[in-house]
Amino acid sequence: MRKVKLFIANSLDGYIARLDGSLDWLFTDDDYGTKNFLESIDTAMMGRKTYDVTLSRGGIPDSPKGIKYYVFSRSSKSNSDKKVQLVSGNVRSFVESLRQAEGKDIWLMGGGELVESFLKEHLIDEILLTVHPVILGAGIPLFRGEHRQTDLKLINCRFYESETLIENAR
Ligand SMILES: NC(=O)c1ccc[n+]([C@@H]2O[C@H](COP(=O)([O-])OP(=O)(O)OC[C@H]3O[C@@H](n4cnc5c(N)ncnc54)[C@H](OP(=O)(O)O)[C@@H]3O)[C@@H](O)[C@H]2O)c1
Predict the structure, then answer these.
(1) Among 13-17, 45-49, 88-92, 162-166, which stretch is predicted with the lowest mean pLDDT?
(2) pTM
(3) Which residues have a Cβ under 8 Å from the Cβ of 115 and sit 6 or more positions away?
(4) Rounded CA gap, 132 and 140, in Å?
(5) Candidates 37, 38, 73: which one to mutate for ligand 1, based on the most atoms within 8 Å of Cβ?
(6) Protein residues whose CB sits closer than 6 Å to any atom of ligand 1
(7) pLDDT band at 148 (very low <50, low <70, confident <90, very high)
(8) Element (H, E) at 117
(9) Interval between CA 105 and ligand 1 midpoint (Å)
(10) CA–CA separation, 101 vs 83, rounded Å?
(11) What is the spatial distance between Cα 37 and Cα 130, in angstroms, rounded to a whole number?
(12) CA-to-CA distance for 143 and 70, rounded, in angstroms?
């Protein structure tokens, strides 16, 4: 069965974006495993606020790999962007039916609020967390602390060069 993988970048103090949603702190020359990860998936899911940020950054990129994008929203009922499909119903039944379908693994992109919903429903199979060497001090948290303890198994840990990121910060 296809896995649901949360692949997301985090600051050392646990934020996925600044308070204004900006992501300027996370881009480095190193791709910290993104290229390899994208080979493993053909479907991506994101919360509506993450989608809004994506739109402000130029929208969903044309995907040569044909990634199918789903945007979760309780409030939006229609959407004119042909590159995404809106999901507003029950998260569990939607994800379970996606999992049963043929295909590669499924990327849970975030943000924190959608991750919260997935954790509550035990719908995440793997977490690939890139921890960037920066303490933002404030921001949008990955884990909002509104769920019960979830025990995990550490499978792997990998080091990426962070020189560029540190130089950019100066
Ligand atoms: N660092 C990274 O790698 C990374 C990755 C992804 C996102 N981000 C950042 O994270 C920020 C957004 O995160 P966020 O936590 O504020 O918001 P989010 O999770 O992206 O979006 C929240 C919205 O998703 C919808 N939603 C959440 N749970 C739902 C459910 N169970 N069913 C249906 N819809 C549901 C709701 O949309 P409605 O309000 O429309 O009902 C909710 O307001 C952005 O700044 C983005 O750039 C960073």
Answers:
(1) 162-166
(2) 0.94
(3) 6, 8, 108, 124, 142, 143
(4) 15
(5) 73
(6) 8-9, 16-17, 21, 23, 26, 46-50, 53, 72-76, 88, 91, 109-114, 117, 140
(7) confident
(8) helix 112-120
(9) 20
(10) 20
(11) 12
(12) 21
In 3D space, the residue among 13, 8, 26, 12 whose CA is nearest the CA of residue 111 turns out to be 8
Q: What is the mean pLDDT of the chain?
A: 90
Q: Which atom of ligand 1 is nearest to the CA of 26?
A: 1
Look up residue 130 and give its two tokens. Answer: 């890139």
Residue with CA closest to ligand 1 atom 28: 114
CA of 163 to the centre of ligand 1 (A): 30
Q: Which helix (H) or strand (E) holds 51?
A: helix 48-56
What's the CA-to-centroid distance between 48 and ligand 1, angstroms? 5
76 is written with which tokens?
């939006």
- State the helix-helix crossing angle for 91-100 and 112-120, rounded to 10 degrees: 80
What is the tens place of the pLDDT at every residue in 38-55? 999 999 999 999 999 999
* Tokens coding 67: 């990634």
Query: How many angstroms is it from 29 CA to the middle of ligand 1?
Result: 26
Output the CA 138–ligand 1 centroid distance in Å.
17
Parallel/antiparallel/unpaired status of strands 140-141 and 15-17: antiparallel
